[in-house]
Amino acid sequence: MSYVDEVLEVVQKKNADQPEFLQAVTEVLDSLRPVIDANEELYKKNAILERITEPDRQFMFRVPWVDDNGQVQVNRGYRVQFNNAIGPYKGGLRLHPSVNLGIIKFLGFEQIFKNALTTLPIGGGKGGSDFDPKGKSDREIMAFCQSFMTELCKYIGADVDVPAGDIGTGAREIGFMFGQYKRIRGSYEGVLTGKGLTYGGSLVRTEATGYGLLYLTQELMKCHGESMEGKTICVSGAGNVAIYAIQKAHQMGAKAVTCSDSTGWVYDPDGIDVALLKEVKEVKRARLTEYAAARPNAQYHEGRGVWQIKCDIALPCATQNELLLEDAKQLVANGCKAVCEGANMPTTLDATKYLQENGVWFVGGKAANAGGVATSALEMSQNSERLSWSFEEVDAKLQNIMVTIYHNLDDAAKRYGVEGDYVAGANIAGFEKVVEAMLAQGVC
Length: 444
Ligand code: NDP
Ligand code: 2IT
Hints:
CATH class of the domain at 208-363: Alpha Beta
Bound molecules: NADPH dihydro-nicotinamide-adenine-dinucleotide phosphate, (2Z)-2-iminopentanedioic acid
Oligomer: single chain
């Protein structure tokens, strides 16, 4: 049995109740076969795969808070510090009722490779809670965030572990958490990213994941002799990543015609109105029915369905496993040329395989959505030097990073004889950097 298969078997046995984590590990290890085969003796002796698939440590804790009726509520908090070979742990905090340890581990595992791809010195981690922010008052959100940070603050720090936003965690939540960290630890430091601009946040961080996704997509298209001009794009999600992906797509002369939330989706043939979407989702925190009601030509549908709309490019930007095999078949039948993942692991393994086998240029989330965490690392740099860079300066760095990521993964795929397999290319490029650091640092 090959080293990869041996380790996959052990990981499956040890984590049988964590399907998302197993999916993420299977995708990565499968695609690393060419590198592992070429270095099997060295990696096996040093237990590289066993070490990289086992988190450094994982925290689970009680988060008690009081709701607006005076009732005490209890949620479960998580922080998984996965690997800090190349820098302090870095990764977002997800607040969603579906959150469990397996989901946080899948996200933390992916973050190791993504963060290595950014070219910046950050390790991999992730956290969150099964708390549901939907329908909560600002006071309830603050009560939860303060309680969550009261425990989390023991494990993080500007040079230790630097959390940020993810699903359900935006500027409001980061603000409340930062305030509580400062209050308990008495230290004003860059312990979180995605902060407000008046207290150490970076320009472009809000837009970074969506913008970065489009910068990478544009480079992918350019390298295949295509431009973004006039392209029709299907986007899923209606949150931070989706909104700024749509905005940048329009700035590039393409037209994004769909978006979705957890209850339904919109097809707007005139192109999604970004100002209206922002008003509905960022300000009112309302459902997409409100968007559709304000746009005469927009159709609203309950459930899921964005991938049935004919498009040149598909950008899944909502959540994991939202683009299934049947969706992949529909996209191919409709002539879709490229799929780039704004979300983390939105495409199932069989759907990915189908897209790749049918000639769709497919770039996975570890590369395509790395602009968010890359700009977080730029926020950390600005905090360390106690300076703020201009929008243009950060945006130029972000563009440069995304173009570099594309070429690094394209080169890695070519080096290992899997040209055009951007999933393998990204995993290989990220893995090579982390492994070199792990080997240099000895058994730890
Ligand atoms: P948000 O909370 O801002 O938005 C998530 C969007 O997806 C919402 O519109 C939400 O609907 C929708 N959605 C649909 N189905 C689900 C579901 N089952 N679970 C959760 N959300 C659902 O999150 P982000 O935009 O920040 O994150 C989207 C994806 O991008 C996630 O996979 C995240 O991990 C990834 N990502 C985020 C980065 C960032 O910087 N924020 C960086 C890199 C990746 P509704 O409006 O009804 O809640
Ligand atoms: O999945 C991700 O990369 C994020 N949610 C962003 C993490 C970060 O630290 O900015």
